[in-house]
Amino acid sequence: MFFNRIPSIKTADLENQLSERPQILDVREPHEFKAGHIPSAKNVPLRKISTYTPKGKVYVICQSGMRSKKAAKLLKSQGYEVVNVRGGMSAWTGNVRGGKA
């Protein structure tokens, strides 16, 4: 189980799937999320990830890809289908919503 690879996706590939309304989980801190996030993303900070229950496949994103990878590993170990978004919001070129979470 320790060596289970976490599937990953490029930000551009995730952007191309937005019309399918994928479940996107942003694990950054609330102030980071409010500064700019993918419009359909739900914010659950990494420190609270153990309280989150995804419904179906979930794409996990953070600022650079490190926190999302940790969150994805934890969720996968609990049996959920997860995909880490490589590069995180630093690599995101799609629409961003700022302001209210």
TrEMBL record:
Native source species: Pisciglobus halotolerans
SMART domains, sorted: RHOD (SM00450)
Keywords assigned: Transferase
GO molecular function term, any single one: transferase activity
Name of the protein described by the UniProt record: Rhodanese-related sulfurtransferase
Any Pfam family the entry gives: Rhodanese
PANTHER family in the cross-refs: FAD-DEPENDENT OXIDOREDUCTASE, SULFURTRANSFERASE YTWF-RELATED
Rhodanese domain boundaries: 18-101
